[in-house]
Amino acid sequence: MDDILIEQYKKIAKFLAACLGKDYEVAIHEIKNDELKLVCLENGDISKRTINAPLSELALRFISDEKYKNSDYEVNYKGLSGDNVLRSSTFFIKNDKGKLIGLLCINFNIGHINKSIKKINDELKELFDIVDTNNYVEETNVEYFTEDISNVISNIIEPIIRKKNLPVARLSFDEKMLLIEELKKQGVFLLKGAVSEAAIQLHSSEASIYRYLKKTKDA
């Protein structure tokens, strides 16, 4: 039944992309067998992703924070992909039992709009010496789109490493546990290849990562 529902949403994604036009990317992520996969992508040149690309760390956080239990969607947060600035929204796909089985994501490319607004503001400031009021997109949550899972993981652990000044090449057991717990908390290990990439970035073996995972608080 869940597979049938996802197939219906794939058709909806194609319909939305056709209706909204080339400035709108529409994606379907499926959650199946404890793994997250991008299974449908329309106008993918906007985020420069392809099928099976990893979910962004912000979307993973929506899942790990169980936002879907109290809301059907999250709308109008900022997305970034290369030079493209996006206005992004996510709809939580749930089955008849309320279980989250996927995400429908729409990303509107507003980069050219922002450039036009900035040009107008710059000209107005020159003419009238006014303050720039270009606050087109809410900055509280920012989503970074990537084709590479290594970027998802590094975007999560690098701020912690910088803040705590951790020695990346010689992390202690407790320091590695701290990073593994944060990655798990944000749902990174739902992504294919996450264990292998975490092992590379934490200078550990895959077997060690699995051992750390078994020792995490909610294991």
TrEMBL record:
Domain named Transcriptional regulator DauR-like HTH: residues: 153-214
Residue stretches making up the YheO-like domain: 6-114
Name of protein: Transcriptional regulator DauR
Organism this protein belongs to: bioreactor metagenome
Gene from which the chain derives: dauR_15
